[in-house]
Amino acid sequence: xxxxxxxxxxxxxxxxxxxSLRMRHCRLRTAEGAPVAELEVLSFRVRFGAVAVCAEGVGxxxxxxxxxxxxxMGRLLRRTLTxxxxxxxxxxxxxxxxxxxxxxxxxxxxxxxxxxIPVRNVEQATGGEPGTAVxxxxxxxxxxxxxxxxxxxxxxxxxxxxxxxxxxxxxxxPRTTWKPGSQVLVLQGGGATVGYxxxxxxxxxxxxxxxTVDELVAEDAAATRxxxxxxxxxxxxxxxxxxxxREPADSLTGRVARQMGCTYRQGFPPSxxxxxAVLNRSSLVRxxxxxxxxxxxxxxxxxxxxxxxxxxxxxxxxxxDKALIRLLLGxxxxxxxxAHGTPIPDRYQDLCTAWFPGGxxxxxxxxxxxxxxxx
Length: 375
Known about the structure:
- The protein is of the alpha+beta class.
- It has 2 domains: 8-110 and 270-355, 3-Layer(aba) Sandwich (Aminopeptidase); 112-267, Gcn5-related N-acetyltransferase (GNAT) (Aminopeptidase).
- It is built from 11 helices and 15 strands.
- The strands form 2 sheets. Strands 1, 2, 3, 4, 5, 6, 7 and 15 form an 8-stranded mixed sheet that branches. A 7-stranded mixed sheet has the order 9-10-11-12-13-8-14.
């Protein structure tokens, strides 16, 4: 498709697959065919609690130097979002630029967080001798991916923002000459894979100053402790006192690490970062109706659920789409919305408190964007 304006035309390439994600390119070019601006649109499924919905994300945004500050990127984004709205109900940005995407309806919707775990704490909690090999740990291979995908989806099935990984998923960082890529540790138990850890690769020549785990997922607390012990052993060999795990505090890994003693560091950027926008409010609410009913199931309410959902779809209830997306994802609770100028009418208070409890509670885990699913 094309849209010529002021001598600059818009084009979109057909979808193609890039590292397990369907991608299309949206571009502006001059009448002579010279590139002006471009961006990527990626297709995936993302979770709002127990429901995974089709979504698209904006990435790779770039304007050629000679065409900057002329409004081209704004035109391209508006045109792209119009096309996205024909296909999906919600859009995401994995790493938004501060002060830019708010103008197009996006808002920060997930915080950045990670665990910092002292090696000594792990050794004391697991009772192993420093540097001792952990039974059942081996290096992973591509043949392990189906088991890793299953463990991941099982562990994070109700977590907002999490991508639903399909059977062909492979977002591990490939090995190259100057970058070793992802290192995978797999834990075997009873003839099956019961846990894994993906360590961030270290560029050739980098000092051995840190160990960072992009993901650590296991089927139970005992397997989690063994994986943490295996990472602690690597740190002991490198004479490091702490290591970082990129997992949310309310995950199984987070709970085990908190029992051992750790620090959880979380940041809430006022602008930029990981952002989301509602493209089709009524359709999105209709798709998420089973999830909203699930959240409200354990909380009695005198408010008619069907009528309240209708009010939410129409925008009579929570008319601000930016507030709505934060509430749906669990970035905000009802109290957070009120503190930021979005009050809830009294007749909807009980039901909205159940619908929008905020992440990190029993009915809704904290929203979290795992590193390997970002783009």
